[in-house]
Amino acid sequence: MVSVTYCEEKPINYFLGDIDMIYHRVKLLMIFLITMTIIFTSPMKTAVAEDKIAGKDRTETAIEISKRRVREDVILVNGSSFSDAISAISLAKKENAAILLNQSKELDPRNKSEISRIQAEKVFIIGGNKVISSSIEEELQEGHDVIRIFGENRFDTNKKVNEYVFTQKPETIIITNASAFADLLSISAYAYQNQIPIIISDKEGEKLDIDGIDPRTTYLVGGEGVLSRSIEKKVKKPIRIAGSNRYETSLAVQESFYKNQSDVFVTTGEHFADALAGVTLCNNGENILLVKKSTKEIPENSKYNFTLIGGRIQNGKGVALYVNPHQDDETLAMGLQMLKDRKDGKEIYIIQMTNGDKSIAVEKINKRLRLENRAEIDKKRCILQETGK
What we know:
Blueprint: E1 2-6, H1 19-40, E2 44-45, E3 51-53, H2 58-66, E4 73-78, H3 82-85, H4 89-95, E5 97-102, H5 109-118, E6 122-126, H6 134-140, E7 145-149, H7 154-165, E8 172-177, H8 181-186, H9 188-194, E9 198-201, E10 217-221, H10 229-232, E11 238-241, H11 246-257, E12 263-268, H12 273-278, E13 287-291, E14 305-309, E15 319-324, H13 329-343, E16 347-352, H14 361-371, H15 379-382
Parallel strand pairs: 1-16, 3-14, 4-5, 4-6, 6-7, 8-9, 8-10, 10-11, 12-13, 12-14, 15-16
Antiparallel strand pairs: 2-15
Helix pairs in contact: 4-9
């Protein structure tokens, strides 16, 4: 939303005394005007300042995430297929590793550069040769200890990763549907921070493999549409965390484990890549909240300090206030910042100190429109007629 208020300037009558008094008053007035110009030609925002981590694509976003923490090793996953990639979370915690996203056939030069920057001793590859090719593995073997973890299918790969990470029987496990990546990513920060294995299953639990595990606590993440009641019978004292959809499930995780945590990472729940790489940032008790497009979707969002992950998310929290004391110059100077605030989902308020009747901007725009044989702007429609409108 953009609101514009017109506040007409009124003449100010001064009683002019001797020349020293006039000079003193002019000096004070100039100081006041300069100060007000500095203050009011910059946007005044009531929103908590947000951070944003994003690259031009998911591979670059993962690299930007990697740079935010000191890393020791690297996990390479296929950035276009979540089936094996989602099993990397617990391994990333154990190895203090960045999760980098690559295509299947060739090593992305940007990933190669980031692996070199980290000076990674070990590079883990999650999935078989169809997921990350053998030629990539061979290239990485020059200077790195490459460990590939894979199974016959996603369930077997998930089991093998958990066996590598957890050498002792865990007291707590998390079960999610192998196809419902959003539910898994909603609980990923909690699993990462507490080193809890995430075990993937099909809806009915026919492919659920928990033989030899006797956990005290089992969390089922997702509703009965993705994890049926039959799974509850296979474990002791199951605790289900679920909402009516993926975003409600994400909020349910926040309410269950992060009720008093104000620092959160926010990313899209429509795709898996940004949240998967972003989980490695959650070292200080932060959670990852999933939204469709904007932080406006999060109830009571004013209580959170958001860090946005990926270029798909808008910060829908907050207000930007602009005060425009003259006809054109401040509007033109602030235009790019206004566009940025609007793109980020902020409500924009503009206080115009003139009605715009002396503006030359419209004529300049119309000159360009005439050259392009396009319809011109009616200047009369740009003049503000009433205060508060």
